[in-house]
Amino acid sequence: MGEKKSFFAEELHRFMVQVLDKAGIAGQDSEIVADNLLRADLWGIGTHGISRFPRYLMRLQNGTINSHPAITIKNIFPAVLAVDGDNGLGSIVGFQALEAAMAGADKQGLCLAGVKGSNHFGAAGFYCELAAKRNYITIVLTNALAAIPPWGGKEAYLGTNPIAIGLPRQDKAPVVIDLATSVVARGKIISAAKQGGLLPEGWALDKEGRPTTNAQEALAGMILPMAGPKGYALAMAIDHLCGVFTGAGFGREVASYQNGQNQANVGHLFIVIKADAFTTGLPEYYERTERFCREIKAVGKAAGVSEIYLPGEREQQTEQTLLKQGIEISDGLLEELKTISREYGVPLREA
């Protein structure tokens, strides 16, 4: 394992915003991208954090991501929006879709936004947290590059296709559920391959469909779905909802870059609901939610367990720690960031 150095979140944020500005992503959009990537790092999900930044820049440079997308949002029905991201950065497309869906939910009680023409949009829980803090229950889905086989297959066809759900709470961090439909996020395989590490058994298959613990073989092969056929079924449903349903790419079409295709055409689905839709108002919703959370945390603990955590609670605690201590960056990623620093003339200062 290489040496790691720490950087404060505000420094990494400043660095990314200034680089993005020079790369043609200006104003609020660069702030959104930086916020999105940093939230993943602060939650301890480094596979979706600043480690993605060099690839985002590479794709902006080679034109496979549009730095000036003309994002369109059309009302198909009163509570249904069709969003075309025009191949923009996924976090910018996703943020605009979420904002439009929240505005729609204000009028209709709920709103569904289907997105095509997008790219990798970071951690799905990022959008759920944003919406939950504004008193919306949100379900966020996205498809992704083919990485897992249909159950019983030996060829990757479906993405790791995550699902995230955000539940508002009063004066407390929201409950944020964010999980991939694979045993593990593909980013962890990529990270292990870069560091030359081995994978746990049961994570992946090689290109011949044989179990492997070699990260490089796993990248050339596929990741297994979580919970066997159940994970496969959920991944298929999400690919249908985000790809087939919305008009985006699906299956092997997503981010394939084959046969002249130069756009990822990732699809997302945002379902946004006013938190007090079924109660007499937010006070009643909050009271019921807090009772629910208290009862879960008060359940008798198994041997060796000191606390029962709500989904997202560990990540929120990690965030508070890393805001004080700084975020560790591996030496490999640091070299990439130093190269970016020189290329764009933007300094990067350690904690």
UniProtKB/TrEMBL annotation:
GO terms for molecular function: oxidoreductase activity. Keywords: Oxidoreductase. SUPFAM superfamilies: L-sulfolactate dehydrogenase-like. Pfam families: Ldh_2 (PF02615). InterPro entries: Mal/L-sulf/L-lact_DH-like_ah, Mal/L-sulf/L-lact_DH-like_NADP, Mal/L-sulfo/L-lacto_DH-like_sf, Malate/L-lactate_DH-like. Belongs to the LDH2/MDH2 oxidoreductase family. This is Malate/lactate/ureidoglycolate dehydrogenase, LDH2 family.
